[in-house]
Amino acid sequence: MSKFAKEDVLKMANEAGVNYVRLQFTDMLGTIKAVEIPCSKLEDALDNKIMFDGSSIEGFVRIKEADMYLHPDLDTWMVLAFEDDSYGKVGRLICDVYTPAGKPFAGDPRFILKKQVKNMTDHGFASLNIGFEPEFFLFKLDANGNPILIPNDQGSYFDLAPLDGSEFIRRDICLELEKLGFVVQTAHHEVAAGQNEINFKFADVLTACDNVQTFKQVVKVVARKHGYVASFMPKPIPSVNGSGMHTNCSLADKDGNDIFYDEKDPMGLSLVCRKWMTGILTHARGLAALTNPTVNSYKRLIPGYEAPCYVCWSDANRSSLIRIPAIRGKSTRTELRNVDCTANPYLALSGILAAGLDGIDHVAEKDLIPPVYDNIFALTREEREAKGIPNLPENLKDAIKELKKDELLVNVLGEHTFSKYVEAKGIEWDEYRKLVTDWEIKKYL
Fold first, then answer.
1. Which residues belong to the active site?
2. What is the structure's pLDDT at 10?
3. What is the pLDDT of residues 382-393, one digit of tens each?
4. What is the pLDDT of residues 401-427, one digit of tens each?
C-alpha cells in the first residue's frame, strides 16, 4: 500500500516551493534517465500523462514503437536538496514505464524486478531485505576539468585525516543523503588510495534499488562540488583493490521475522537460507553477466585483491562468493561479494532473487552445497575442481555465454530484454577485443 496519494505529492511540492520535477527511470544498462517538467505540469505527471520517445533509450523499443508513458511511483517523491537550486528547487519521482496500451513495458528493468517480487510473495515470503555496500574512488581533475587517474588522497583502510583526504567529502555526502531520508550507518576510507565506502540502512529490494541509484547521483554531484570526480568503475587502477557493491540479502515473513535464522542449527542458518545460497551458487556463472556487466568488471575479479573469484560460500572465509556475516538473529543475512556498481541494480536483483527462489523450490537437502573453509586462493585449479568449486567467468564474453545457457535467467529477463542485453554486451565485447592497449604496445612493439 502506498504511503502517499496524489494530493499528498501536490501538497508537498507546493509547501517545499518546488519549481521543477524530474521524472526518472533507468535504462537496460543501469543508466539513470529523466524527463524534467515544470511544477505546473506535476498533476499531469501524477495522472500518467507524460510521454517520452523510447526509441532513443538503450534496450527500449524500435522507432515504430517509440511512444512510452511514465507512471510515477508516488512513494519515491523527494526534493533533491543536493541539486543547485539557483534556477529553482527540483523534486524527483521514480517512474515505471508503460506502453500506450496502458500495460507495463516488458523491457523496463523496474518492472522486471517487480515481477520477481510478486514471485517471492507468491512463495509466501513478505520481503527480501537488501543492504548494499557501494564503494567508489575520488579522482582529481585536470586543468580542463577532465578526470585523471590520480586519487584525491593517499589514505588506506580506516585511515583518518590527514592521510584520509576524503573525510569532509564523505561527511558532506552523508549529510545530503540524510536530507533525503537515508539512514546512514557507516562511512570510511577503503583499502586503496582515494577509495571510499558509505553504507546506509537496508530496505525492501525495490526501495533498495531505487536508493542505490539515488546514492550514486548524490555521490557524483557532491564530489564535483569539491572539485573531484567520483567513479564507481570496478577497477580503475590495475595495481590496487577494485570497487565492489557487496549485496546483503535476507528474506522475511509477514511478521518481519528473518527466515534465514535458525537458533537450533549449529551455524544459526535455516534450511531455507542454505537452499537460497545453493540456488544462487548454481546460477552464479550466468548471474555474473548481470552482477558484473562490463569488460572492466572482470579486471576486479582476480586473485590478490580481496574480490571473490570462486563459486562457494562460508561463514568465515572472505575469499568466498557468498559470506555469512557473524551476526545472527534478526540480522542473519547472506553477503554476495562479487556484485559491482556498474550493475543495473533492478536486473541484478531480479536474477539474484529468482536464483535464490529456484534453490528454495528445487534443491533437496542432500544436494545442498556445503561451506568452504580453505583459503581458496591458495588452492590449485585441480584442487578447487576436486572440491567442486568452479570459477566465476573470467571475462564478459564468457559471462554472456553462461547467461545464454541459463534458462531461468533468460526467462527472468524476458525475450525483449534478454535479446537487447546480449546484443549490447556483444557490441561492448567486440569494441574491447579490437582495441590495442598501451600494455600491448609496450610489450610487443
1. 53, 133, 135, 190, 197, 246, 318, 335, 337
2. 94
3. 888 888 889 999
4. 999 999 999 999 999 999 999 999 999
Instruction: Please name which of 315, 325, 304, 314 lies closest in space to residue 389, comparing C-alpha atoms.
Output: 314
Does 398 share its domain with 368? yes
**Domain carrying residue 40:** 6-104
Place of cell 567486440: 430
CATH number, residue 44: 3.10.20.70
What's the structural domain count of the chain?
A: 2
CA angle 391, 394, 396 (to 5 degrees): 130
> For the whole model, what pTM was predicted?
0.93
